[in-house]
Specification:
single chain, alpha+beta, Dna Ligase, domain 1, 6 helices
Length: about 140
């Protein structure tokens, strides 16, 4: 999906939710949409400074918090990075395949895995508020297959 169509979808969702898709938030969203791997906050900040020289760490963190709350991005906990979610469903469970060689991140949505994980958690009296499962390895391209 093109960056423009993703931005249009995000803008429409923000309007539906009564949320403001400010120019800074949109610029950070665009930076995320143009990269297929995870990006750290300071990496995004350096890119943002090309068009917003006065941007500070708080600027990027506020934008990332907003984009996460709207369901537009996922946080990759193991590397403290962020990636665009093309599904835009708020707080849906995700499984991330992270290539340790090239940094590419693929998002999966296995209902079976989510259901089994949730059932086992519930059996222990645990209520899951947010679920992201991360698996690290090497992608097909990096393995040469």
């Amino acid at each position: 999906m093109s960056t423009e169509s993703l931005v249009s979808r995000a803008r429409a969702i923000c309007e539906q939710n009564g949320a403001r898709f400010t120019s800074i938030r949109e610029k950070v969203f665009r930076l995320m949409a143009e990269n297929h791997g995870g990006q750290g906050a300071y990496e995004l900040l350096e890119q943002l400074k090309q068009t917003e020289p006065a941007a500070k760490p708080a600027t990027i963190y506020r934008a990332l918090e907003f984009l996460t709350e709207q369901g537009f991005i996922h946080k990759i906990e193991s590397s403290n990075a962020f990636m665009l979610c093309q599904h835009f469903d708020k707080h849906h469970p995700a499984q991330l395949l992270i290539c340790e060689k090239c940094g590419n991140v693929t998002e999966l949505h296995s209902a079976t895995l989510h259901t089994e994980f949730s059932k086992q958690a519930a059996a222990l009296g645990f209520h899951i508020h947010h679920q992201t499962i991360e698996a690290r390895g090497s992608c097909r391209q990096c393995r040469g297959n």
